Amino acid sequence: MALLPIYETPDPILREISTPVEKVDDEVRALIKDMFETMYAAPGIGLAAVQVGIPKRLLVMDLQEPEDPDDPESKPVREPRVFINPEILAHSDHEVPYTEGCLSVPDQYAEVMRPDKIRARWLDEHGKSHEQDLEGLLAVCLQHEMDHLEGVLFIDHLSKLKRDMVLKKLAKARKERGLRAA
Ligand code: GNR
Ligand code: NI
């Protein structure tokens, strides 16, 4: 059991292209376990291996959606998902906005447009292949995580003006945190 360090922008590791997982073995499964622990502690709904400094094509996700969709205060249901060497086989032409955040761009949120439906293929933690049509938050989150595998952050989808605004707010928040700690 271990919490892993989460790398934040502008760390150059986040710009690396992740390489395929060659073999889904116990070492990979141990990393997956630590990634879930790190993701739940953060807390976040997804985490790509490169965010913890390991540029491999591997990500974990748990949308932790409330038990009762009409009551956001109801207990979140845990549904851990693992995606190894994921591929997007097709996506709809229709794009929808979603307000995204990222553990590597802490406490900053902005609306990103992405295709609302995708067909994806991936391996699970046992090396078994899956192919499925995905939509909603699951499709948004998988696209966000798969961007990480290509060294792309959600802020890269924004206009330069909006991206600079987010980065300025992040710098300000870090500066204030630093002043409080001093
Ligand atoms: O925790 C996260 N929330 C989130 C919200 C909207 C769209 C994407 C995400 S993923 C993010 C965790 C993260 O940084 N994953 O890479
Ligand atoms: Ni992210």
TrEMBL record:
Keywords: Hydrolase, Iron, Metal-binding, Protein biosynthesis
Cofactor detail note: Binds 1 Fe(2+) ion.
Coiled coil region boundaries: none
Reaction it catalyzes: N-terminal N-formyl-L-methionyl-[peptide] + H2O = N-terminal L-methionyl-[peptide] + formate
SUPFAM superfamilies in the cross-refs: Peptide deformylase
Cofactor: Fe(2+)
Entry annotated with the keyword Hydrolase: yes
An example Gene Ontology molecular-function term: peptide deformylase activity
Xref: Pfam families: Pep_deformylase
Protein purpose: Removes the formyl group from the N-terminal Met of newly synthesized proteins. Requires at least a dipeptide for an efficient rate of reaction. N-terminal L-methionine is a prerequisite for activity but the enzyme has broad specificity at other positions.
Name used for this protein in its record: Peptide deformylase
